[in-house]
Amino acid sequence: MQFVKKKTKILAHRTVIRETIERVPFRFQLASPRDIVDGRKNGNEPLAESFEEMDLNPKIKEVLAESGFRRPTEIQAMAIPKLMQRKSAVIAAETGSGKSLAYMLPLVHNMFHDKFTMRSITRQKNPRAVILVPTRELALQVLSVLSSFLLNGRMRAIASLEQFGSRKKMEDPFDVLVTSPTRLLQLIEHNEILTSELKYMVIDEADSLFDSEFARDTLNLIQILTDEKRPIPLEYINIVSATITRSTFERIVTKNIHVLLNELKQRFILIRNPGNAKLEISLQILDKYHDDYFMVFCNDKVQCNKIFDYYYRHNLKQCGIIHGGVSFEDIRILICTDIAARGIDYPHCDHVLMFDFPRSPVDYLHRAGRTARVTKQGRKPGRVTSLVTRKDKVIARFIQLAIQRKVPVTDLTEDSENVAKAKIKINTRIKSFKEAKKLIKARSRGLIE
């Protein structure tokens, strides 16, 4: 039954993606859904080895140099030149690969071009770009990075994810709005912002925004903002995610999408009697690796609060739960759920502890990737420790197989469903065989004819 539910959820997710594509006008789509632009296979256009080689605005290069960024990651080298041509695209790459800069730099470059070449003017309540994100924490992080590039061009970005407290920010002119789909619909409905000059749209952490909580609002926005009757047509839509389904948008992919990083040290600990045993074992792990910075993952907020209280009672004072206003620099043990941590930059993370085992291989991929984020010096490998209970054994086994075979975890998701079907068939046959055996015995005793 559990696998039937999982399959239903996957099919529902695919339906949402398909509906999204159907609502996007033809000019945003490719002629063939199988078209893939892959920079690694394009011999005529070798990938840039430094940001200096790219045709980015000099003001952007200045900020990159000051921040210590000199070499682009693979997805950045592939995506930036393509997006500078104002093309709609799906940016799909493994967690921690630098996808945020991959879409931000060409966005800022194009906006600089509009401002200084086409004399675009920053207007009140009239943004030229909107970036959709699922959480407040990610919005603030995107805003911080984006603002550092916009300041050089005398442009402004704001974030608005709450009904109260953001009206004052909108009184002054701004160029980019970072918000959630639900909040953006509210702003449009109440005429708090206008979309007449909106040209660029980014859907960040798309797997979350196409999930049940945001899906309908995201679809409605795409329909509204791609309306051909708008005075200024939308130039492109970028969809950004670490996990993405095939679509008719142009795709920019990297070879490691959905693949677990080889350099990670991954350990699975089987917990036979959960209860307090999980709490005690997690304390032992935190004590053993006392110099590591941890992200402790739970499946819900209730469990997060429970663990936080337990750790605090055991004198682990440098722990915290992700919420607005948290300063990550002071936290050694960050307790969070998948949604709360999605896209958040916690550069110190040395060790991911999965207190609750993830519900799917893709969630495992997202969590594990938190301790292998791309830094200025390159990729920083780390540790992943998972506490596995009896109900998690099947999915944990398939993830271990993915690690051993070095194949995408999504390939094994279908295998796990097939195995589940096979188990059901075997159990049905065993049941039928037992019933047939009872029937033969009953007949031999003359109990039935």
Automatic annotation (TrEMBL):
<dbReference type="Pfam" id="PF00270">
    <property type="entry name" value="DEAD"/>
</dbReference>
<dbReference type="InterPro" id="IPR014014">
    <property type="entry name" value="RNA_helicase_DEAD_Q_motif"/>
</dbReference>
<feature type="short sequence motif" description="Q motif">
    <location>
        <begin position="49"/>
        <end position="77"/>
    </location>
</feature>
<dbReference type="GO" id="GO:0003724">
    <property type="term" value="F:RNA helicase activity"/>
</dbReference>
<keyword id="KW-0378">Hydrolase</keyword>
<dbReference type="InterPro" id="IPR027417">
    <property type="entry name" value="P-loop_NTPase"/>
</dbReference>
<feature type="domain" description="Helicase C-terminal">
    <location>
        <begin position="256"/>
        <end position="418"/>
    </location>
</feature>
<dbReference type="InterPro" id="IPR044742">
    <property type="entry name" value="DEAD/DEAH_RhlB"/>
</dbReference>
<dbReference type="GO" id="GO:0003676">
    <property type="term" value="F:nucleic acid binding"/>
</dbReference>
<keyword id="KW-0547">Nucleotide-binding</keyword>
<protein>
    <submittedName>
        <fullName>DNA/RNA helicase, DEAD/DEAH box type domain-containing protein</fullName>
    </submittedName>
</protein>
<feature type="domain" description="Helicase ATP-binding">
    <location>
        <begin position="80"/>
        <end position="262"/>
    </location>
</feature>
<dbReference type="InterPro" id="IPR001650">
    <property type="entry name" value="Helicase_C-like"/>
</dbReference>
<dbReference type="GO" id="GO:0005524">
    <property type="term" value="F:ATP binding"/>
</dbReference>
<keyword id="KW-0347">Helicase</keyword>
<dbReference type="InterPro" id="IPR014001">
    <property type="entry name" value="Helicase_ATP-bd"/>
</dbReference>
<dbReference type="GO" id="GO:0016787">
    <property type="term" value="F:hydrolase activity"/>
</dbReference>
<dbReference type="InterPro" id="IPR011545">
    <property type="entry name" value="DEAD/DEAH_box_helicase_dom"/>
</dbReference>
<feature type="domain" description="DEAD-box RNA helicase Q">
    <location>
        <begin position="49"/>
        <end position="77"/>
    </location>
</feature>
<keyword id="KW-0067">ATP-binding</keyword>
<dbReference type="Pfam" id="PF00271">
    <property type="entry name" value="Helicase_C"/>
</dbReference>
